[in-house]
Amino acid sequence: MRRWRSGSGLLTRLDGPVAFRGGGFAPRGRTWAAVATLVGIVALWQAGASAGVIPTLFLPAPASIARALWALTLSGELWANLSVSLMRLAVGWIVGTVFGIGMGLAVGLWSVLRSPGMAVVSALFPIPKIALVPLFIIWFGIGEGSKLATLAFGVFFPTVIATAGGVDNVPRGLIRMGQSFGLSHGRIVRSIVLPAALPAILSGFRVTSSIAIVLLVAAEMIGAEKGIGAFVLAAGNLYDTDNLLAGIVVLSVLGLVVSWVIGRLERFFLRWRG
Amino acid sequence: MKGGLRLTVDAVGHRYGGLEVLRGVSLTAEPGEVMVLVGPSGCGKSTLLGIMGGMLAPGSGEVRCAGAVPADCLNPLTYVFQDFSLLPWRTVAGNVALVLQDRIGRAACAARVDEVLALTGLSEFAAAWPRQLSGGMRQRVGIARALAVRPACLLLDEPLSALDAQTRDLLMDELASIIEAAGTTTVYVTHNLAEAVRLGHQIVVLSRRPGEVRDIVRVDRPLAGRRADDAGLVALEQRLWRMIRDDAAVAERERIVDAT
Fold first, then answer.
1. B 43-102 residues with CB below 8 A of A?
2. What pLDDT does B178 receive?
3. Which candidate in A170, A181, A272 is best for mutational testing of the B interface (most B CBs within 10 A)?
4. How many CB atoms lie within 10 A of CB B213?
5. What is the reported pTM?
6. Does residue B164 contact residue B85 with C-beta atoms inside 8 Å?
7. Is B235 exposed, middle or buried (0-12, 13-18, 19+ CB in 10 A)?
8. Alpha carbon distance B215, B247 (integer Å)
9. B184 vs B234: CA distance, rounded Å
């Protein structure tokens, strides 16, 4: 095909198949590539440690971490810490999420609550919640209360923002449709507003679950006897890097599992998107 | 004509801020008749329909309705929307059931959903998601949902304008049959004059903004007997176009000026 030059002032002949130019801009996920990347990193890490390039005192080899993890599993120490962390994570996240969704709906639906609610959220959201842990210990004691409050508080604000944003973006035409059919306010909220806001709320879950894990570890590092955070801190104090990294691997897996669960929830609740 | 509501528009005017869109509009849709509102873009057709259906408070004047309402009517004044307004997270049956839930029993709801889906040819798509349907099918769902509440008055806001020409022609015929069978008073907004002469008993021509009633044309023929190639209807369509053409051209220029 002879070239066609725009603005050249010359007419040239076109003769040949039309070249395809509509590809790209459509990235696709490849599971094998993700797995291969992780396996490759671990293999390089192991090879570096075995060759003595990586000092194992500071960064133990993956095999050492795996052995430590296995020993913790057999001794029951892993579950003893993990079960406490999971309980704190579940309770704190659920409390923060329930109140956050309630507040987000209220802010999104009622003018009388919108400005006061958003003013409070805007003022308190930017505070690093870890900085509040000592205050929560003073308020709720060194026991479970302060840890659960830290998690719930940290989860609450992003949930409010995600829910209120979701409600704001509900297509007004759908609400007008509901009103035109004389549906009750409650029915419109249940059948139109909540489902329409659900994608935003579920996206918020991804953010808040990560925040919850970060806050869980931080809260457990301050005055907790059990929990993965406390375990990691204790291992660090003893220079027991095998167990320290075993605890970090558990946190990483916990994050992956939570992300997978939220993904399944999205697939179930948003199956209408196809 | 079987019955339904008489809808009376009395000296209705409306403004959006400083923009006057309707001025002194007075009309009456008689029980069981189809009133079609036509006019150039921006003349206030949809605004007037919104006011007639109680979705918009008029700036001045009032709309009154009077007459018989079906015994099982759940929503006397019922809309069919241009953009279908279907809930994408509900199936076809779920979208229709939405307007019946909390109002009638579960068995009655299911029976009525089945009935209107059969009436609109959607029975085999009851479990489909809206995204799986064509535009014409989606609008059928919108019509089925409107019929499910046994309306006394149907308010259709350019229901066929989002569809391609072939689907529009097919659905127009079906719509005529459904409206005639239901026998409800119908107010139909369109910019398509072929639809107006095919479906209207009373065609109201609005002037360009601020919309005023410019003319009212009556078509005293049953909907079932009207064909697209009927010489009388074609002549009427041309007559309506002559009425609207100059206003439409001015309205188009005003839109360009507004946009710049």
1. 53, 55, 74-75, 77-79, 81, 83, 85, 87-90, 98-99, 101-102
2. 87
3. A181
4. 18
5. 0.85
6. no
7. exposed
8. 13
9. 26
Confidence (pLDDT) at A5: 58
Q: Could you read off the pLDDT of A217-265 as tens digits, one per residue?
A: 999 998 788 999 999 999 999 999 999 999 999 999 999 999 999 999 9
Q: Residue B22 and residue B11: Cα distance in Å, rounded?
A: 10
Closest CA to A45 of A32, A60, A57: A60
Give the integer Cα–Cα distance in Å for A195 and B88: 9
Tokens of A135: 């205050």
Which residue, among B81, B59, B41, has the nearest Cα to B245 in the 3D structure?
A: B41
Q: Do A191 and B83 count as a contact with CB atoms less than 8 A apart?
A: no
Supply the ipTM of this predicted assembly: 0.89
- Angle (CA) A179-A182-A183 rounded to 5° is 80
- Backbone dihedral angles phi then psi of residue A82, each to the nearest 5 degrees: -65, -40
Query: Which among A234, A221, A237 is positioned nearest to A150, based on CA atoms?
Result: A221
Q: Is B28 touching A (CB cutoff 8 A)? A: no
Calpha distance A152→A146 (Å, rounded): 10
Q: Do B88 and A272 touch (CB under 8 A)?
A: yes
Closest alpha carbon within chain A to B73:
A181
Residues 6 or more apart in contact with residue B130 via CB below 8 angstroms? B84, B86, B87, B88, B90, B92, B95, B138, B141
* Contact between B205 and B39 (Cβ < 8 Å): yes
What is the predicted pLDDT for the residue at A203?
Answer: 95
Contact A160, A121 (CB under 8 A): yes
pLDDT truncated to tens, each residue of chain B (260 aa)? 455 799 999 999 999 999 999 999 999 999 999 999 999 988 999 999 999 999 999 999 999 999 988 888 999 999 999 899 999 999 999 999 999 999 999 999 999 999 999 999 999 999 999 999 999 999 999 999 999 999 999 999 999 988 888 888 888 888 888 888 888 999 999 999 999 999 999 999 999 989 999 999 999 888 888 887 889 999 999 999 998 888 888 877 776 666 55
Tokens coding B243: 């009425």
List, for chain A, all residue ranges whose pLDDT scores fall below the cut of 70: 1-11
Neighbours of A31 (CB within 10 A): 7
Task: Kindly give, in sequence order, each residue whose CB lies less than 8 Å from that of residue A222, ignoring residues fewer than 6 positions away.
Answer: A133, A134, A137
Helix, strand, coil % over all residues of chain B, rounded to 5: 40, 25, 35
Tokens 């944003």 belong to residue: A165
Cβ of A177 within 8 Å of Cβ of B149? The answer is no
